[in-house]
Amino acid sequence: MPCESVLSLSLSGRTCQSVNELSFSKTNHVVRQRDSQAEKETATRKKLRLSKDQLAILQTTFRLETTINIKQKHALARKLNLKPRQVEVWIQNRRARIKNKQAKVDCELLREYYQVLSSENNRLKEEIKELKTEISRTLAYKYGAVTNPAAAGAVINTVKLCPSCKSIGANTSAVQVELVGPS
What we know:
Elements lengths: L1 H11 L6 H26 L7 H13 L5 H11 L3 H59 L12 E6 L15 E5 L3
Antiparallel strand pairs: 1-2
Helix pairs in contact: 4-5
Subcellular location: Nucleus
Family: Belongs to the HD-ZIP homeobox family. Class II subfamily.
GO molecular function: sequence-specific DNA binding
């Protein structure tokens, strides 16, 4: 157990290091070197800040054409003193930003359109419900189920039609009216 040997050496007051301590310190040194190299790499990969002139040229080029071919990319990179990959990435990012903005606008328009349609749908459902109630009251009065058309909100639950002619008024004996109490 390496921890116990290190612990016992430090408690005994000896100044010598065990083999485990030496290998740990070497490994720790290697890890520190790797970390510092990674920090240097991230420090060298700072975000590219374009000058106002470079940005203006890129934007005008993008307004003229949203995609550029290899020759145009290399010519623009030379003109701006950038790498061709930097020009390519800038144009791709610009297209992506525009696409995302347009998607947000479209989403908002669809959301508003959905709200309008939803409220219209609810209004139509209420209208259908009112019309069904009115039809039920009218049919109940017409076929004698009730003597008063506004009789206590009675609603017809089912109406059976004449099987031969499919109409209510042709054969009143074939009509069956079932009343349901106020809803």
